[in-house]
Structures are given as C-alpha cells and as structure tokens.
Design brief:
By secondary structure, the protein is of the alpha/beta class. The chain has 2 domains: about 240 residues, Rossmann fold, CATH 3.40.50; about 180 residues, Rossmann fold, CATH 3.40.50. Helix content is about 40%, strand content about 15%. It contains 17 helices and 13 strands. The strands form 2 sheets. Strands 3-2-1-4-5-6-7 form a 7-stranded parallel sheet, sandwiched between helices. The radius of gyration is 23 Å and the shape is globular. The two termini are about 20 Å apart. Keywords: Transferase. This is Glycosyltransferase. One of its GO terms (molecular function) is glycosyltransferase activity.
Amino acid sequence: MDVTAMDKKNVLILSTGDVNGAYEAAYKVAHIIKNLGHNVIMCVKHKTKNENFIKPYRYLSPSSANPNIVMRIVNKIRNKINPVQSSKVISTDRKYSFFSNNESSENIHVESMLETVGFTPDFVFTGMTINFLNSTDLLNIYNATKAKIYNITVDMNHFTGGCHYSWGCEGYIKGCDKYCPAITKENEKITAKQNFEKKYENAQKANFQIIAGSGLTLLQARNSKIYKTRKTIYNINSLIDTRLLNRKNKPIAKQVFSLSGDCFYILTGAQNMEDPRKGFSYLLQALELLDRELPLEKKEKIVLLVVSNSINEEFDSVTFKKQKIDYIKDYRLLSLLYQAADLFINSSIEDSGPMMVSEALACGTPVVGFDTGILTNMVIDNYNGYKAPVRDSRKLADGIRKVFELNKDTYEIFSKNAVKQVEEFSSYEYAEKIFKQILEQ
C-alpha cells in the first residue's frame, strides 16, 4: 500500500528495546507504518533485531560530531553547563512499577538523535521508553522538529506521575500529589507531583496526542488530567498479525503437542507468575471451587497447561492434571499452542494487556478472565468468552465452567467469534486504517 512521494512522511518510532511485550508492540507499529509506504526509523536504546530500519541511539561526542577544534571547545563548555542529567533513585512499592524518577531530566541530545535517525521526523510515536527518554526529551524533539507526537499506552505511564500501574490510585485523574502511595519514603513522595506537573506542562506545550493500547487504557486516557481534552483517542488493541496467529491449524494443533483429543485443555501463563499483577492466587481459588463442584468424570477431562519462566509453587496444590510448557518465543509454535488449547484464562487484576488475550482470540480460543486490560473490550460474554469482576474467583470459576460445558457446535461459534473480534478490532489491517488516518492529517 504505497503512498505518493508527496504524501510520504518521515516517521520516528521511539522505544527502549525492540523485543518482548511493550517493545515488541513498538516494533509492530514500525512495520505497519512501513507497510503503508512511509519512511520509518525505529530508534532504540538496546537493539536486538537485525533489521536496518532499527537504529540504536548513540550520543555523538563533540569531537565526532564536529572536527573543528574551536567547535569542540565550544561544545565541551556547553555540555558542562547543560549536561545530560542523571535520575535520582527513590524508594517505591514495586507493584506500581514507578520508574520515572525525574521527568525534568534531559536524557538524550536531540542533535545526536536526529543524526542517528538520518531525517527530521514529521511524526513521532513512542511506546515504553524506560531508562531511555521522557516527556522533557520529547518536548525537546518537538521544539527541534515540530513533529506531531503520539504516545502509545502500553500501560499508564504516559499520564501518571511515574507509575505504570495505578492500583486504584486516582492521581492520574486529578493530578498526583504528596500522598503518592507508590513512593514509600515521605520526603520523596513529592517526586510524583513534580513529575506529573512536568508531564502535563510538556504535553500542553507540544500538544502530545495519545493512542490507547487496550480498552482499559482508552478509558483511563479519556479520564486522565493530561489527555482528557484530546478530541480523538484511537485504540489499537494489541496489534495482532493474523498471518501468524489464526485458527487454520486448530484441527491438528493438539497432535503437534501430543495432546489427547478427549481432554479439555486450559492454557494460562505469564513471564513471571509471581507478579501480583497477574492474579494467579485468584485463579487458584477458582480452580479449587471447580475441583469441589465438578463431578469426577468431568474433572478428569480437564488439563491445565501452564506457560511461564517460573511457576508459582502454589500450583502444586492444584488437583487437576497439569503440564508445564516452557515460555515460547517463536510465534509459529505459539500460534499452534493457542490453537491446541480449548480455553485461555487471563487472571490479571492490574494490567493494560496482556497481548496473550488477543493472541489466543486470534487463534480461535475463547478467553475467560477478569474485566481489566484488553479483556475490557475484546472479550464479550456469551460471544467469545466470559468476563468476571476483578478478584471475583467465584465468577471466574463460573466462566471457566460455562466454556467447558459448551456443546461442540456452540463452542465452534465461540471460536469463530474470537477470530472475528480480532480481525475487526486488533489486526494489522485494523491498525493500518488508524495510522493512515493519523498520517494523513
């Protein structure tokens, strides 16, 4: 889908990395916009993939940037007067993922950034930029280029005082203050207020726009003090490549993993199951309820497939059959695993995603989980799965049982509806339409 030379835009994607989770999302955005025919560079702090359009940021010292000895001296003096500032370390409650310690700091030199990129961007899209750059750096990029800047909400950080997950705190709505629950030391709590005010100021000066990454972050962005006045907030819903993730091999997927055609396989997992955000204790409670309530002949048909780098020891108490599967990075094999499963459970209680929900749906696997993150608008009760109120293990167990007891024909309808939901609201094709609208402005 090529654009004309006149309409071709220079697009800069900014992300700390290019693999896994939020960083992978930025990589997908880069590919989608490249496929529209625009000039795209993804600038990262840590490069892993070998594509040429991904460039690691490099600070160009005065000697390498300008060989003239007089200019070297001038630049040396300038850097001493206004050096790149380091962020202070503050004490935080880890569950909030409070990483933005100093929103006023300058972490990159814009001249070095533009030299790395090789063009002056018309548009800038940012995802997760932990330990790379912040809103002050984005303002500096705007002042140098006048590019339109869009922040993508892989979590809440773009509109909070520093945390990536709020855990019910409404600071992002009214403005963070000195009572920030994420910061544990009283004399440091003011950091959240200072960060929030700087983010708000920078967003107004450069007219930052926001793109939601899930139904939940769309609602949060609309309610946030920083972005509530934005007329349009698009939602891209995980960005799923349906060429890789689909249900085309569902009839044979169980055979690939040597799974029985007579069993009902429940897939769940996360990179780290010890993370309290993932809510696995509530899933264990739901499984205990099912263990007590299901007749033996039904219980024996259920097998729990657990994908994780580390499994919570409490899973040893689960009486259903269990099978551990190592974390899968190859999307072709992951697609087959989703297709082999009969149900995917997401027990997250504080999450902006996860992407696994949309990936499972794309592969025709119904989803049951708590009403948060991507489930908020991608899972529809009695259509492609079931949602339970957050932390309600009773309702979670009910949703699992409902899918388990679907007859073959109804299950097939759920499976097809799961794919349809992704194609309509989470596919590359859906995202292309959104980015085309943005880039044509």
